[in-house]
Design goal:
Length: 123
């Protein structure tokens, strides 16, 4: 079965850090650009960051620039999202998605969403 699985979420205090992982099963993630998305309660899913297949081109949403870092280890078939200086407004379910081309598509361009991983930022 071809799928991506997100992990690494949790509850963290404001200012804290988490590292999310997006692992591919059944296919080679290194052939794809990968995007991280998030969906907060009552809000639409939004793009957070995108990395191309080689890791050489990266983009971030303005809301996370300077705080989040996306990276990938194609040998491990995994993409990461390091999240630092977390804020309560970062609370959301985080998802990853693979795309054949750079740049990553939007949330409506993907239809194989996984379970996501919950991130909660609260004191």
């Amino acid at each position: 079965q071809l799928q991506v699985v997100e992990s690494g979420g949790g509850l963290v205090q404001p200012g804290g850090s988490l590292r999310l992982s997006c692992a591919a099963s059944g296919f080679t993630l290194g052939y794809y650009a990968v995007g991280w998305f998030r969906q907060a309660p009552g809000k639409e899913r939004e793009g957070v960051s995108c990395i191309d297949s080689t890791g050489s081109t990266i983009d971030y949403a303005d809301s996370v620039k300077g705080r989040f870092t996306i990276s990938r280890d194609n040998a491990k078939n995994t993409v990461y999202l390091q999240m630092n200086s977390l804020k309560p407004e970062d609370t959301a379910v985080y998802y990853c998605a693979e795309f054949l081309w750079w740049p990553c598509g939007g949330p409506h361009d993907y239809n194989s969403w996984g379970q996501g991983t919950q991130v909660a930022v609260s004191s």
